[in-house]
UniProtKB/TrEMBL annotation:
Record protein name field: Peptidase M55
Lineage: Bacteria, Bacillati, Actinomycetota, Actinomycetes, Kitasatosporales
Gene3D superfamilies: Dipeptide transport protein (3.40.50.10780)
Signal peptide per UniProt: none
Name of one Pfam family that matches: Peptidase_M55
Amino acid sequence: MEKRGTKVYISADMEGVTGLVGADDVQMGGRDYDRGRVMMTEDVNAAVRGALAGGAGEVVVNDTHSTMRNLLVESLHPAASLVRGKPKPMGMLQDLDGSFDAVVCVGYHARAGALGVLSHSFMGHEIEDMWLGGVGDEPGDARAMGEIGFAYATATAIGVPVVALTGCDVACKEIEEWDTRVRAVPVKYARDRFAARLRPAEEARAAIEAAVADGVREAATPAVRPRLVPDTGEQVLAVRWQSASVAQQLEGIPGVSRLDDRTVRAQGSLPVLFRLFGVFMGVAYSLTGQPPYC
């Protein structure tokens, strides 16, 4: 039977999950990683419950952290299907397309350079900064971004609104700078990059569930939130790497140029740039092999 109701996509990262503050919480082999997996699964389950309460007839979850094999499959809410493992051509947005009505980002974190819990941009320290701008923008007009901004911009270009995001308070502020309509749920309050005041887990998950339910309900009501029109226009992505070697190798990709020794540039539609950036990271990993939180 064909499923009815709103179609919801959940992109699940780990650093912004309830209770997690250090590398050992989120890295495979870390002493608290197994506990971190439980916490991540529970946050995602809260989001799934919220999506269902908001009228979702189908929920797809994408495990997007590190190996992308973190969520406990046997403990995941039975109403959700799971996209698991890597490589994925579209990484954190794998399987997202215009048939979805809403995107929810669970466990997201602030971008590199921000004093948020476990802040970074895609790679632990290899990426120093990222920008997104329009073709023909003047220098300085491009917008600094990390995973939150890139995921938000790409999802909306595909035509699907981001309706809710969970993470530390700094991550919540970051998404609000992109779109104040996104329901941001702080599950912890950063005190430093590896320290936070934690919101009680039961309270945090209740807040996740309520915010997602409201966001999904709104996305299903065109009079309140009109459907987005997909944007196929070209934009410019720039990435500054810690290593000049990475930038030099990336320059060998057709359409990629160097702005300086460590910064590369590419132009295209946002879904294309998002996929291309995955290739960038593959090259960088092959050259650096560095742990993510040193």
